[in-house]
């Protein structure tokens, strides 16, 4: 069903490059080098490196590479440029990173400014939900204030203070939705905080527990540690959060503990880190605070899971279809769970747990074999939730096999919706300069009214769409979006279009995502043409002491898109070619007479392919130098023989050897 989780994740940085970010960029350089140097050659080496800069009014480009040294070059090229006051295009940069990163990635965004493009919040959340990507915000200094030295009037300062509170909450909301953290530190603390948080960038990283509370209060959490877990870490992000930790033996460790302890703690800015021993059993964590906070318990283990919501297929064949956006609220639903390391583990419980509360919904688990499970729920929580999986795993490391309980949790917060949005995906190619019309439909299982429509794309291409659609209760309506790529758009550019429908009152919304590719209209359907210029050899009975060579002119025609590549399919000789123009190349080839055949593969820029074959008899010495004719009179594929007299002689000799009578 296309569900996968990469063996190693992308390392993705989104960096504010305005003038006050000089120290932050230096910290990013240092941390990047440390991560790369410590992970290159190990199983945790990132499979992909991504960098997206942003400021105001610009963001991008997205820089992507699989080469660690090239990525270091990208990072080292970052400079803090002069810019205006806050805010910045932080969500535009994040949107570009989300659409350019593989699923299940982890993104680190560095800024000291509020978001100018807050209107992208719901789009970013939609992309987070679909890609299941974790986003961590590294925020320095008092958000949004240090660049406003010119704002001396009290009214302007009060407005900035409101902006600070609003944007702090914006970043916290996005971090919570993704299962990441919004870490606020001073600029001198950034390097230390980033080093701590990037320690968890591992291919075997798993989440045992995470929670978020916008209204702090005393609360107790529990989590199970199994024998496969190592490098256990608790992250608590928030101000003035007191904790008490109880291990399976009943030993306590709290915020004011000063004696010797096997638990190590560290506090940097609003991030508290607790490193635990891998003691198997049930742990308790009691948190007390009057402020908002987030909690995350992680470790490393081969046991993990991936999941997707599914629905009964509506076609003629029985089965299930993937739910690409939010599941439908108010009805029963199904979940497909795939357990990694499923050959030694089994799932016994799957629960939908409220992200910001204690409510939960238990599912009915049906094993399907091969580590796959179908889980049925009679309802979905009405608020944001995560997926919690518990099961049993066989411990084969001891002389006697034993069973242990494990616990894993998803990172991304999900939500149900009574609204559904469906984009037509019949056309996925966007031709530069030609508008593409994309029909879409909006359906509701709830109340009708005026539904607000919002559409965005990550490349900033011209986009029009209806601002609203009117739906009756339980009804649907259709709309059309129109997107236009500039004529100068580069072929192969990916474009991610997101369309969101918001129910009356704004309390409910859903989305759909369509991925397009920019490709110019193809008018070149003819393959390149090969024309032999010369073929010479001194081949003899001792083929290893003689050679042959040829010269060929390759053209793609006057209306062609240009030659893209020339390579050998057959032949052990040396191939050289020189592009005289984009559409014309002179090719030379020489080889031992022991390798008498050669095939040239010529491809133009739209993928038309021509295979040109040539050969020389190993025991004759032809010399063929035809008069060059216009390329229009040359056939597209050439299978070149030697002069007719030599050919007849060769055939006669071969016939006599075979005892055949020649006529």
TrEMBL record:
UniProt-annotated location(s): Secreted
Residue ranges of every copy of the VWA7 Ig-like domain listed in the record: 423-520
GO cellular component, one term: extracellular region
Record keyword Secreted present: yes
Domain named Hemicentin-1-like von Willebrand factor A: residues: 10-187
Source taxon at top rank: Eukaryota
Ranges where the Hemicentin/VWA7 galactose-binding domain occurs: 206-301
Predominant localisation class: secreted
The keyword Ion transport is annotated on this UniProt entry: no
Protein keywords: Glycoprotein, Secreted, Signal
SUPFAM superfamilies for this protein: vWA-like
Name listed for the protein in its UniProt record: VWFA domain-containing protein
